[in-house]
Write a structure and sequence with these properties.
Number of strands: 9
Helix content: 25-40%
Number of helices: 7
Shape: globular
Strand order of the largest sheet: 1-2-4-3-5-6-7-8-9
CATH class of the largest domain: Alpha Beta
Radius of gyration: 20 Å
Order of helices and strands: HHEEEHEHEHEEHEHE
Number of domains: 2
Length: 291
Amino acid sequence: MRSSPIGALLRALSAALLAITVTLLGVSAPAGAETEYRKGPDPTEATVTAALGPFATATVSVPSSVAGFGGGVIHYPTDTSQGTFGAVAVAPGFLGSSANYAWMGPRLASQGFVVFLINTDSRLDQPPSRGDQLLAALDYLVTSSSVRTRIDASRLAVAGHSMGGGGTLEAATDRPGLQAAIPLQPWHTVKSWPNVQVPTLIIGAENDTTAPVASHAEPFYVSIPAAAEKAYLELNNAEHRVGTAGDTTQAKFMIVWLKRYVDNDTRYEQFICPTPVPGPTIEEYRGTCPG
């Protein structure tokens, strides 16, 4: 049946109103597009490199008596007016603890994320165990923690340094429904990760002698399918311990990756597409663009 001019006009107006709603509210149309969860002002280079973001934060300690991991510290936004937030669990490196990554908690949480810096059951735990503990920590966050009502359980991520970075790859493999993974200077005896389906940002360090990029970060990156969405950032003139420091470039791209893939916030694509060029702090950057 041929549509009437009035019917066609009404459909056109409806489509236009939907497009306006999508633009103004940051939500997506129902045709398979992802919903955006925009938190905070429009990003600029200054906002993604700032020591702190726009959200005030608080902390809560988790005792080592919890099952599945060794406790830790949760950093979270105190704002309750903007709905729930995405969350990320972060695993330490070999012999390390959550205290070694204290810079990361307030920096990421103040950008609009619940951040769980975990301790492992043993500081000697290997990457597979650290991956299991990351997932146990996420489960604790959304089911038992005192901040569980602040978290959107469908928007979770993992990160970790050194063996914790290897654990991050383990967790991403075991739980493909995660929204993002960020291994920092990752170490693992397994070099190929073809089953990772989670958008993964691997951050290596040019002068890393503990987990040299040529035998760790780079082959890890290459082995992850492009369909997963992935990026490789190599920090210029940096060493293995850069993961424990508040390095501005490292923090910037962690924020951008979490914003883009945990919050689905397309405003942050400008920082990764087109891919960043080498410079004073970036030795190399490779990546797929969201699509």
